[in-house]
Every structure is written in structure tokens, then in C-alpha cells.
Amino acid sequence: MTYTPARIIGALRRRKNDLIRSALYRPVDGVQLRNAVLFEAFDGKVIGDSPLDIFNALKISRPDLEFFWTVKPGVQAPQGSTGLKYGSREWLKVLATAKFLVNNSAFPWYFKKVSGQIYLQTWHGTPLKRLVRDIEAGKVSAQYLSTMRKEAAAWDYLISPSAYATKCFASSFGFPIKNGSGNTLEVGYPRNDRLSASADERVAVRNRVRKQLGVKSAQTQLVLYAPTWRDTNRNAIGTLQTVNHIDAATKMPKGFQLMYRGHSMTLDAHNSKTANGAIDVTDYPDITELYLAADVLITDYSSVMFDFAITGKPMIFLTPDIDKYVADRGFYFDFVAEAPGPICHTTAEVIAALENINEVAKQYGKAYKAWQQKFNSLEDGKATARVIAAVFGAK
Predict the structure, then answer these.
(1) Pairing with 181, which of 61, 150, 278, 351 sits 20 to 30 Å away (CA)?
(2) Is the dihedral of CA 129, 54, 111, 157 positive or negative?
(3) Are 373 and 162 in contact, with CB atoms under 8 Å apart?
(4) 15: Cβ–Cβ under 8 A, 6 or more apart, which residues?
């Protein structure tokens, strides 16, 4: 890895802040735990992913619990909960005393689960690219590996959406721990339950979102473009940069409208120009609703490809840097051979696929069904209920 002076200074500044927080953090075994749940998604950058679906269900099934959310500037906790600023004294106190912890990523390196706490790790997607211990040596920092090793040792439960993902998680996280600590909940992703709602419910969401986005015609084919981030695409101080391989000069085929969804990891670099003239839905709070509103997905290596497949709608893969990406991170399976849609290297190829989207869908029908069987067989709309029963039980 290459580190510029500015990036090193930025890392030192973040390390200093973490050292201050670690001094204020007081995890004590034997302390009376608060009958509360602390939810966190992507370090408080968003209120969403599976933690949100679990929160919404717990508000109904466990009203005796207090609910807290980690938030960063500009993020508001949902109704029925209290927002705690990431790194604040209040946040550190709840982190050390809440009975339940629910996260889709990782707590800071200084986190230490105390006796009696129950930590539910939801993770944030079916893995295509290799994770943590499975990444080639030297391509991930020792600090990250150390943090994730401690993280996995603290998890009581890890949600898995499929048998495939369970194997990847066992390899990458070493979870469950060899001494028998921890339980993998192979139940599907709570965040995907709404994709299996009744047809009337899905249509209602679709119509509401499209109207909100200014899509006037019901005949408009709405295309969601959701690329992932690149670890090698950073500015001088180390901030991850946005990815958009569809430039502003690109014209969608007649009857198609493009939406752009930036990744949560690149929010710090996002601005109004990033979408290149498409409808910018980066700040839209619920990507699941965007899946329901869209007619086609364009992505690259993002785990949205696994979630979106539940809808059965066509997918196109824009991957101009696939050789470099595979070399940098590596995949768990032969993506090109199994992809449920065309692998495109240029925007022109994407446009051609959109112009013939019905034929493309037929061409990849068999591969799509095999994909759904491999990755989506547990997605029946009841994953949240299974998680609640296993982790939180009745009042």
C-alpha cells in the first residue's frame, strides 16, 4: 500500500481521537446492564440495512426495550429511538452498558464486550470479493485484521443469508470461534424481507417512490446504477472516492431513466455532480425501496446483485476494471461464468443491453434461476422474525 504524507497525518489524527475515546470508554464486567439495544450501520453514516428492519420489528415485539442508534452529523435516528453521536461520551456509555448490540460492520478497535452483553452482527451483504482473512497478505492492514479478529470473537450471533455465505464467513472471520463460541443464523437477510411482501405492497412502494423521484410515466423503465467502492481509489488524505463509469454525455435509450446510488463508504466524497445528470438517490434512506421502484439494475461487484435478484428483474454488470479488481481483491467464485446478466466493459455495451433488455433477460434466464437458488433460497420474507426469535425472544 502507498501512503501519502497527508494520508498519514489524517490517520494519526483519527488515531488520536480514538485514543481519547478509548480513555473515556468504561466497559466493566458485572455492571448492571441497561435493558436497551444499540443499533449501528456503517459507523452511523446511515440508518438502514438489516439493523433497521430488526429495529422496526423490535419496536412491536419488545416495547420494554430502549432503543439507541449511532449517528454521525446529518443523520437522524428513527422515531421511537434516541440518536447518539458516534464517539460521544453518551455513545461510549451506552456501548458499555446496553444489553444488546446490533451492528452491520465493526465497532472501534477499543471495543470490549462486557459480561452479559449480546452482540448480533448482521454483516452487510453476500460476499463476492474476498473478506478479511481471505484477502491476499499485504493487501489489508494489520490493524484491520486485528480489529476484525477481536470483533468476531465478540459476536454471539452472525446472520448469514445462505449456505454459500456461511462458508465464506467461516473462512474470512473464523466464525463460529473454534471453541464453540458464537452462532451463525443462516436465516436470510432481514433487509430483504420487504422484497418478498405481497404484490399489492410492493406495487404501492414502487408507485410512491417513483412519484417521489419525479418519474411521471408508469411506462418509464427506471434503471438503478449502484457501483461499489474501490480501496485503491482515494484522495491524498485517504478519503475513498466515488465511482461512476457512466458519464454525463451518455444518453439512455428512449423510455429509460437512470438513477445513481453512491456507496455508503464514499459518502464523504459525494457531491451533486457525482451522479452525472442521473437522478441522485445516494441519500435516499432505503435502498430496498429503490429495488422495488427500479426495473433494471446496473452494478459492478456490489452485493446489491444478490439482493436485487430476489425481485427477478434484469441485471447488467458494468465492469471496465474487472481484471484489476480481481487482482486486488479476488473473488470467492467465478463471477464471469455465473453472472445472471451481461458483463459489460463499456457504457456502449450497457446501452445496447438496455435497448434489448427483454432478450437479455431471456438469454440469462437459466443463469438467473441458478443464481437465485444458490444465493436467495432462504429469502422468504421471514428472516427478521427468525432473528428476533433466536436473539431477543419474547418479553
Answers:
(1) 61
(2) negative
(3) no
(4) none
Q: What is the DSSP string of 283-348?
A: T-S-HHHHHHH-SEEEESS-THHHHHGGGT--EEEE-TTHHHHHHHH-BSS-HHHH-SS-EESSHH
pLDDT at 9 over 70: no
184 pLDDT more than 90: yes
Give the C-alpha separation, 169 to 173, whole Å: 5
Start-to-end CA distance of the chain, whole Å, equals 50
Q: Which of 217, 286, 290, 305 is nearest to 260 (CA)?
A: 290
Distances (CA, A) of 189 to 7, 280, 371, 382: 36, 26, 16, 9
pLDDT tens digits for range 108-138: 999 999 999 999 999 999 999 999 999 988 8
Which has the closest alpha carbon to 154: 131, 188, 132, 177?
Answer: 177
Q: How many helices (H) and strands (E) does the chain have?
A: 14, 13
Q: What is the pLDDT of residue 177?
A: 73
Taking CA atoms, 261 is separated from 179, 257, 266, in Å, by: 41, 13, 11
For residue 318, list its beta bridge partners. 344
- The DSSP bridge pattern shows strands 66-71 and 221-225 to be unpaired
Tell whether the model's pLDDT for residue 11 goes beyond 70.
no
Q: Name the CATH superfamily for 5-188+380-391.
A: CDP-glycerol glycerophosphotransferase, N-terminal domain (3.40.50.11820)
- 299-308 b/e with 16+ CB inside 10 Å = b? bbbbbbbbbb
CB 248 within 8 A of CB 220: no
Domain 194-375 CATH (choose: 3.40.50.720, 3.30.420.130, 3.40.50.12580, 3.30.200.20): 3.40.50.12580
- Report whether pLDDT(242) > 90: no
CATH 3.40.50.11820 location in the chain: 5-188+380-391
Non-local (6+) Cβ contacts of 162 within 8 A are 126, 186, 188, 374, 375, 376, 377, 378
Residue 91 grid cell: 455513545
Q: Where does the pLDDT of residue 179 fall: very low under 50, low under 70, confident under 90, or very high at 90 and above? A: low
